[in-house]
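Possible race condition, two jobs.
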Amino acid sequence: MSATLKIVLCIVAYVVFAPFIGGLMSGIDRKITARMQGRQGPPILQPFYDVLKLIKKETVYVNHVQIFYLLIFLFFVIGTGCLFFGGFDLLLVFFALTTANLFLILGATSSHSPYANMGANREMMQMLAYEPMVLLTAVGFYLATGTFKVREIIANNGIPAIVMLPGVFVGFVFILTIKLRKHPFDLSTSHHAHQEMVKGITTEFSGQMFAIVEISHWYENVFLMGVIALFFLNSNWWTAILAFVAVSITYFVMILVDNTNARLKWQKMFKNSWITTIIIGALNVFILEVFVKGV
């Protein structure tokens, strides 16, 4: 099989299967959360039922530009995953993800709702908090493997990147609480829907628009778990099993943290994220560059 055909098949597989995997992840999340809280919880397929209901509901537009921004948001989220699973440059992948979030913010602010605007402002603060760690992750992979390209990182027949990037891995897992919209850093969307912002950045999205946001998050979550897997993958077959176990444990830890921590203020999110980035992520990259690569 040619390299081009493999890339095309990987991209098609992501576009087709990622929303189903992401929806199942969301359903498992709800079920585990319910059990942690002593409840029975909804069926694992409940997220799919919810999205189908949203698609059938009447969609109320504050203005027609909202749906345009959300469609561009969905397009860039899917594009991010396609670039990643297609094996392209990590810097380009993370740039596409940042661009997607900007369109979500534009969609929220276009409604002029005070709750949506507050959520959009907090979303921008979250981006400022986690973007340095995202950049360090890409740099760390380059220093550990000599390339930014995902397919070349996976094709490496040496040791998995996690061996040289433990600090970067911990830092990336830390900011996952922001990207997955989990406590203690669930600031912009009010994932648990009992906070002072109602539903934050998604307050003015209804019907099909809210369904687009949910499906986008499914795609995004699969991509984020793919980045976690990348720390463990290389050309050895057994690293695929290692990566699956790592992804499963990481996702469970995110759910556990979500259910055992109260939401913090944005100031603490910003402070903790930057401290983690500088002390753990940047120190790991510094040591790798100076002491390991310099030898």
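Job #2 (started ~2 s after job #1):
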Amino acid sequence: MKKVFNAVLIIITILYSIWYAGLGGFVGNKGALSKIGLEHPVLFAIWGILTYFSLAYSIALGFRKTKYIFYIPLLTLSFVGMVLTLTCEFDYANHTQYVLHCIGSLGFSVITGICVFLLFLVSRARVLAVTCGIILITDLVLLIIFKETAIIELFPIISGYILLFIFNHIREKSKVEIK
């Protein structure tokens, strides 16, 4: 039942994310998810809540196959990042809120990405770990070159859903033991 719930949650979140990103356009800085949130704060909050809980649930489901629990404080920090992202406006006129929003967004992204990568690494899912690492590095390079766009922001998130789905639903492996 957990796997079915997880699959449905991922599908709903991907579809909502694509629809939400379409409100501002997928390319160009005006399509950045936070910029769309300035005009649609409730829709942005729904996107953030769905995104956090879809990723956190998938990560927790994956880590249950291991004996590692370090993901719990990482997901807590990631949650704080998402709360800052959703509660602080992405408006440069209010510099303090803008900085807190950016810190939260960056914290959420980096910590969640690291958590997914570490799940694959400690589970010895080498192909998934390498793929995740390539996606994270590629996204960082694209972000530096093109700045924020909906495609660049959604690329690692949707990729993470797909990799976590593969790990949690398709790849069956015995529990990983701490050595």
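The radius of gyration is 16 Å.
Logs attached separately.
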